Amino acid sequence: GIDDPGEYSSFVDRMVEYAYGATQGKEERICYLNFVLNVTTQCDCCGWSEPALTPDLGILASSDPVALDTASFDLVNEAPNLIHLDGRDLHSCGYDKFAALRPNTRGSHQLEYAEAIGMGSRKYELIKV
Length: 129
Prior knowledge:
Largest sheet: 2 strands, antiparallel
Oligomer: single chain
Number of helices: 4
Strand order of the largest sheet: 1-2
Strand content: 5-15%
Order of helices and strands: HEEHHH
Structural class: mainly alpha
Radius of gyration: 15 Å
Shape: globular
């Protein structure tokens, strides 16, 4: 875990840089998928799960990982809650649900940094099929 907020930004920045490095030279051959299902505040790497924050929102696809993660982040934050978060009722929408439960997390920082280093764009068009 990262307890010092100053460590969080450095850790996330390195994680973004490593992900970006792994894609170099393969940009035309990668399709990114996000399964926005059973979304919790825990990392997918955890060996347990907590109650879902929102209803299942679907599967998203893009050739731009930053746009994809931005759309996923926005969809989660605009969805109704399935659990009480930060004193808000179950129909509260439009705020960072992850930060409500884990105040040291800032998903927007990761997206902003990824865009700043050229990994992609936070602009997206959501097309439902």
